[in-house]
Amino acid sequence: MKAPLENYHARMQRVLDHIDQHLDDDLGLDVLSGVAAFSKYHFHRQFASTFGVSVHRYVQLARLKHASHRLASKDAPSVTDVAMDAGYDAPDAFARAFRQRLGQSPSSFRKSPDWAPWLAAFGPLNNARSKLMQITYTNDDVTIRDVPPTPVAIMEHRGDRATLGDTIQRFIAWRKAAGLSPETSPTFNVFRSERTPAIPADYSMDLCVGTDLPIATDDAQMKPGVIPGGRCAVLRVFHDTHNLEPAALFLYRDWLPASGEDARDFPIYCQRHFSLFPGAQVHDVVVELFLPLK
């Protein structure tokens, strides 16, 4: 049964990859069922049962997410251009769908993105992508790298993960005001607790942006710090980059005992590599997960 299941998953993954790479093209049922090599009469049911969301809604969410990236970029095109590229025949239809999902008009989002509802809006998209299969890692996926120390500005999130979106919104606003674009200043997350601790209030994570600029002593949001240098086990994550727990569990539970290495006294952390520029695709987001070693 394993080989047929793997073949089925590969065909479904092919559909997701095609959607990512052809957001401006026809993504109707005839096209996508052909990509999957499934009957169109059953494909939409197979897609919904696999991903927990209809193919129509998945495509809409993927296009809206891509559109929001374009609107938030520093060289944002006109709302009309974004609407047309997102597959809408008219800007007003795009605006209605955008407002319904994100709670802001496209023009308002372009001027001042509200990232908390943005994260909530695309939760179903991220959940769908994670349901295809559990991504499996092997020891060959891990490299050991000597990394240099990196000075950073740190915004601490302490408390229920349900409020993380608000912290992310403040973090993005701060780095925008400081002129620290994700394209030029690296983004790090330091994980100081489990993703879902037994007590939700114990959740703890640092949001960091690489910079050696001084932090004002009266800055109530940010503090200076350093991502320490040294040897690290590095695992690249391409798929569900919003949930790194499976990758972290692999490093701790499988790779570390088999490697003969010892973990250093610094939390596991990640660097997010992404671009908010016209033409960016969902799969352009790559995360490197670092496990510090002695």
Give a structural overview.
It is globular, with a radius of gyration of 20 Å. It starts with a helix and ends with a strand. α1 packs across α2 (29-36) and α5 packs across α6 (91-102). By secondary structure, it is of the alpha+beta class. The longest helix is centred in the N-terminal third of the chain and has 20 residues, at 2-21. The protein has helices spanning 2-21, 29-36, 40-51, 55-72, 79-85, 91-102, 106-111, 115-121, 123-130, 164-177, 245-259, and strands at 142-147, 150-158, 187-191, 204-210, 223-227, 230-237, 269-273, 286-292. It contains 11 helices and 8 strands. Strands 1-6-8-7-3-4-2-5 form an 8-stranded antiparallel β-sheet, covered by helices on one side.
Please give a quick description of this structure:
The protein is of the alpha+beta class and 294 residues long. It has helices spanning 2-21, 29-36, 40-51, 55-72, 79-85, 91-102, 106-111, 115-121, 123-130, 164-177, 245-259; strands at residues 142-147, 150-158, 187-191, 204-210, 223-227, 230-237, 269-273, 286-292.
